[in-house]
Design brief:
By secondary structure, the protein is mainly α. It has a single domain, classed as Glycerol uptake facilitator protein (Up-down Bundle), CATH 1.20.1080.10. α6 packs across α9. The radius of gyration is 18 Å and the shape is globular. The two termini are about 35 Å apart.
Length: about 240
């Protein structure tokens, strides 16, 4: 009995029971994650690629605004279907907080990475090779600065998402605006350091299409650490708030 309970805790199999039972519904959620992540990468990385191709027509501010707005649009358009994670790190955070099970998390991540790679190919096909499809790479301050930036930026991204999208005390209708605003702000303020990816899928798609793999591990390990720290911090905040209510 204890072993069964542990297995359920580790895999979240009970959490995913309804999702696994509804095959058409599950397929819809995966398609939603493919399309949502495609859109995110196509517009965020695409803005960087077009900026490079056009000699600066988009600008850093424009790229940040484009990324923020596409996040808002995808959450409103697809949030009711799959939750619009459109980021493996967000899916990881939802798994760590027990909102989805391991099977669903892995399926979401596969869908997100697939959508990102296709988007990267689309960017190169349309905009050409300039800017390496908007790939992220360490710049100002080198690898250490880019890595620390990814940890901190992702920490606050996940903290915002947990606060507005998973807590019943928050105003859920404003979740898209809060998350999109944060993404745009992070990119405008910190992209020159290392791209302000906060999303392994956003970095993987352009890396595959553009062939830019400089210190690519940063864009996996940094967001992973940031997400884990954010989950721990928010659970502490939620617990303290619950006790004081």
């Amino acid at each position: 009995m204890a072993d069964s309970s542990l297995w359920q805790t580790v895999t979240g199999v009970e959490t995913d029971r309804d999702w696994r039972a509804d095959r058409r519904g599950a397929a819809a959620t995966l398609l939603s994650e493919v399309l949502g992540t495609f859109a995110l990468v196509f517009f965020s990385a695409g803005a960087a690629a077009v900026d490079a191709t056009s000699g600066g027509a988009v600008t850093l501010v424009g790229a940040g605004i484009a990324a923020g707005l596409v996040v808002v649009a995808m959450i409103y358009a697809l949030g009711h279907v799959s939750g619009a994670h459109i980021n493996p790190i967000v899916t990881l955070a939802f798994r760590l907080t027990g909102r989805i099970g391991s099977l669903r998390a892995l399926a979401y991540m596969a869908a997100q990475l697939s959508g990102a790679v296709v988007a990267g190919i689309a960017i190169v096909t349309i905009a050409g090779d300039a800017g390496n499809a908007g790939a992220t790479a360490p710049a100002i301050g080198g690898v250490d600065a880019a890595f620390l930036g990814e940890v901190i930026l992702t920490f606050f991204l996940v903290l915002v998402i947990l606060g507005v999208a998973t807590d019943e005390r928050a105003q859920g209708s404003f979740a898209a605006i809060a998350v999109g605003s944060y993404v745009g702000l992070a990119i405008i303020a910190w992209a020159p350091i290392g791209g302000a990816s906060m999303n392994p899928a956003r970095s993987l798609g352009p890396a595959v299409a553009g062939g830019e793999w400089s210190a690519h591990w940063i864009y996996w390990l940094g967001p992973f650490l940031g997400a884990v720290l954010a989950v721990l911090a928010y659970e502490l905040l939620r617990d303290r708030r619950s006790r004081s209510s």
